[in-house]
């Protein structure tokens, strides 16, 4: 980059709008599918840990150890088995979500008042029905809080996957560095930030839709 050259060339962005849209969609898929997969694993695992508390410490320890492994190192491990594919990025990102989602599921279930559980049991709710229809809905705010953290973290880590050719918008970061051209780098960073903000806002809306009683309580107050 020469002195006096603008940081962003708007004409370049206009010329690459379609390509940017494609890479943005790819970035979303690579970043959010792992959160969904992580949630599918974390909810039953969190329920099991809540019911059998002895399982929780070892499960949390394993999840935290996985999270402590640098993402690039974990990508390299999976390259041997899944090659330079999207799965090589999504599997490690799914594993990373567990250290956030499992504790939030356990904490969310622990936040359910005991009188509520007893009332559901007295009304004839079996264990499975009580968990699905009573405990999990009450735990939604705590679980969604974990999902928000996991989603933002996952969307940011996707860019590292470009080092194995699967990084979504990370492509523009590495390309800009190679060409000493800041416009694609700045554009990619701004788009990743926007994706994180929009995703977080949508999750807040989802939480409000899933917990209508909280809105009613706020209105009454």
Automatic annotation (TrEMBL):
UniProt KW Transmembrane helix keyword: yes
UniProt domain ABC transmembrane type-1: residue ranges: 24-204
Subcellular localization, as worded in the UniProt entry: Cell membrane; Membrane
CDD domains in the record: TM_PBP2
Transmembrane segments: 30-49, 61-83, 89-110, 138-165, 185-206
InterPro entries attached to this UniProt entry: ABC_transp_perm/SBD, MetI-like, MetI-like_sf
Entry membrane topology: Multi-pass membrane protein
Name of the featured protein: ABC transporter permease
